[in-house]
Design a protein that fits this description.
Blueprint: H1 13-28, H2 32-46, E1 52-56, H3 62-70, E2 75-80, H4 83-96, E3 102-106, E4 125-129, H5 137-150, E5 156-162, H6 170-189, H7 195-203, H8 209-219, H9 230-239, E6 244-251, E7 254-260
Parallel strand pairs: 1-2, 1-4, 2-3, 4-5
Antiparallel strand pairs: 5-7, 6-7
Length: 261
């Protein structure tokens, strides 16, 4: 019996929702694919072909999906505390046949015990995108210390996120805000989901009802955290034991920060 090539298979429902997620996120993040491209270039240069990538605060698995597509022997572990997004991530991995090398774990990064999901294995690279800004500064510093304690020498950490300009840089702030506004307006004029639209779409599928209710319960009391600067991240990584840290990509206030253990 012949097998249908992967590139010609019909898109499954989970893959379709992940694609809608990526489109929705790109509406808020100018040049999002450029961020992913530079991150994967660093992975290619630093991680063994069959190495392990930790997708930290993975959401529905956008990073894991790109790693799986580009590196056919590499393994991914996605970690998140959002049960709805994890449900989607697992469904996507099953549809795409990646269950053998892509898995997802439920863990709260606020709790230092999250490290147990690694089962004693040290990842070769840790990647995160548009997620760690949800953590308070003290928690983020402790998380970086967690990573500094478990990563082997030469392992890398990459964080892609909005990092606001220090107070007093009015032009920097204005240019970044204008770019965000243009990106959102262009995408939403094309009918791309807003954040709320996307979650309403997920709620239309009864398979996610329980996970969405749990999501509301878990995050009900989480406060909004203050924006942290590039300097905060770089210094916290160095204190955590990373030998070098700094941006490898920037577009206005959007950065990819690289650190080497």
């Amino acid at each position: 019996m012949s097998t249908v090539p992967a590139q010609t298979r019909a898109e499954g429902p989970a893959a379709a929702m992940l694609r809608r997620w990526d489109d929705q996120q790109a509406a808020y993040i100018s040049r999002r694919e450029e961020r992913f491209a530079i991150m994967l270039d660093v992975v290619e240069a630093t991680v063994p072909a069959d190495g392990l990538v930790l997708d930290l605060a993975c959401g529905p698995g956008s990073i894991s999906a790109r790693v799986a597509r580009r590196f056919p022997r590499m393994r991914c572990l996605g970690v998140d505390y959002d049960p709805a997004l994890l449900t989607l991530a697992r469904a996507w991995a099953g549809e795409e046949g990646h269950d053998d090398r892509v898995r997802f774990a439920d863990a709260d990064l606020v709790d230092p015990s999250w490290l147990s999901v690694l089962q004693g294995e040290a990842p070769h690279a840790v990647l995160s995108s548009t997620a760690l800004h949800w953590l308070p500064g003290a928690v983020l510093a402790r998380l970086y210390s967690d990573l500094g304690g478990i990563l082997e020498q030469e392992s890398v950490f990459l964080n892609a996120d909005h990092l606001r300009a220090p107070t007093g840089r009015e032009l920097f702030t204005a240019l970044a805000a204008a770019d965000d506004e243009r990106t959102q307006a262009t995408a939403h004029a094309r009918g791309v989901d807003t954040w709320d639209d996307w979650f309403r779409g997920l709620a239309d599928d009864p398979e996610y009802a329980t996970a969405l209710a749990e999501r509301e319960s878990r995050f009900a009391d989480r406060p909004r955290n203050p924006d942290l600067s590039l300097g905060f991240h770089v210094e916290a990584l160095r204190v955590a034991g990373f030998r070098e840290a700094g941006p490898v990509w920037q577009h206005f206030d959007d950065y990819v920060v690289l650190a080497r253990r």
